[in-house]
Amino acid sequence: GNSVTQMEGPVTLSEEAFLTINCTYTATGYPSLFWYVQYPGEGLQLLLKATKADDKGSNKGFEATYRKETTSFHLEKGSVQVSDSAVYFCALSAMNRDDKIIFGKGTRLHILP
Amino acid sequence: GAGVSQSPSNKVTEKGKDVELRCDPISGHTALYWYRQRLGQGLEFLIYFQGNSAPDKSGLPSDRFSAERTGESVSTLTIQRTQQEDSAVYLCASSLSGGANQPQHFGDGTRLSIL
Question: In terms of Cα–Cα distance, which of B20, B42, B23 is closest to B34?
């Protein structure tokens, strides 16, 4: 079945450091891939998405590239800020339009000033 | 309102009692999802409603859990004979339609505490 695996947290970085949160997936066909973010005290919200191979999703300085050859969708940011502290969830959705979205377990990110 | 609304926001109950959690999706959204998020854990899929199709109940952890949805509107998640391990935040999400390319919009969740 479809599944998502992301790196375990917590991840602790200093402000302005480079961030990578790894995500790999298992799916039949060509799923769409997502990153969701949950800021402290807030609900989950979509951060970025990519719908086909080699697509790059980007938002708020974050990027992730859909790599079919490595079945990965790693989240990156060149210079993190304290305000980026949150839990990040990688997710996929199969191409069947009625299929559900499957989430990874989440990675907690702490950014130190 | 414009977003997904869940009620109550917090619920504290004694072990063995039944609880009912409510979700009002965004108007016009045909897909509705329930998730559970235990403290320090990721999202655990529970159940998925899409239009008039039979719901995907594959994530329900036991027969104490059930959910209903009236048409394409309100959904209720019921937990019978609650146990302490049921303590978690229960999240509801809706999307315009199910599957690929449709981002989910989440409510703020119901924090359930079983004493």
Answer: B23
CA A45 to chain centre: 12
A96 to B99: CB separation less than 8 angstroms, yes or no:
yes
Number of neighbours of residue A57 by Cβ within 10 angstroms: 21
Mapping DSSP onto H, E and C, the string for A71-90 reads CECCEEECCCCHHHCEEEEE
Dihedral angle over CA of A48, A50, A51, A56, nearest 10: 150
- pLDDT-derived band of residue A99, with 50, 70 and 90 as boundaries? low
Average pLDDT rounded to a whole number, residues B76-86: 97
- Partner-chain contact A44 B100, CB within 8 Å: no
* Choice among B40-44, B51-55, B69-73 with the minimum mean pLDDT: B40-44
